[in-house]
Amino acid sequence: MIDYLSFYKFREDPFGITPDPEFFYPSKSHLLALESMDYFLKKGEGFMLVTGGPGTGKTTLIRTFLKGSVDAVFPIVIYNPVLKPEDLLTGIVQTLSVSNPKSLSKSKFDLISTLKDHLFEKRKMGYKNVLILDEAQDIPNQTLNEIKHLSNLETDKEKLLNIILLSQPFFERTLSDPTYAQINQRITLRVKLDSLDKDGTEDYIRFRLQKAGAAPILFDKGAIKLIHKASKGIPRLINLICSRTLMVGYLKGSYRINKSFVKLALKHLHL
Question: Distance between CA atoms of 136 and 50, rounded to whole angstroms?
Answer without folding.
Answer: 10
